[in-house]
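Moderator note: this is an archived Q&A kept for reference. The question asked for a predicted structure of one protein chain; the sequence and the answer are reproduced below.
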Amino acid sequence: TNAWAIEQARKLGVPFYILENHWIWGMALANRGQLTEAADVLKSAIRLAELNCERYFAPRLTVTLAWVYEEMQDTESSMRLGTEAVQLGREMNVRDAEAYARLHLARQSRVFADSKQAAEHLQHAEALLTQDHLFKWRHMICLQEELASYWLVCGDLTRAAAHAVSALEQANRTVSRKHVAWARKLVGDIAARGERFDEAASA
């Protein structure tokens, strides 16, 4: 389906839809575990965006590629692209891309035990998400998940649990199955950390 849509967009000479379908295609491949293929598709789209001076998809493609590299365990590339996506999002006023990139970098900062940097990224992301923009509902779930993870690492189980429950409620309401699973894991991890093992097992 994506291949057909891309071909039609090329025939019509509409770069916007070529990039949109590459973005969707890259995410679909990554969600199926085809990470190398996903990275190739997204890199190709980023090159096309640069050639066309495209402002709408450039930061979104970049932060999606950062996520793919995170899944590939290439932390250096993931951090570099996440930082680039923040800059692009800010320069091009694409708030949802900058917010998601901030959440991505907060997660990566926790990997390096840099809680101060993680907190700064979360604060910026939360401020951006108070504004209306594309995909706000999904990014709000991601924000609650990252806040729960942050406070869990910091040892504040009360705050961690509050954010995990909020993430689970929002994920259930929007039928976001991947986020339902992740939020339930967080609830279980927090309960286990608090030695509430029966609650953890039932999460």
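Archived answer notes: The chain has a mean pLDDT of 90.
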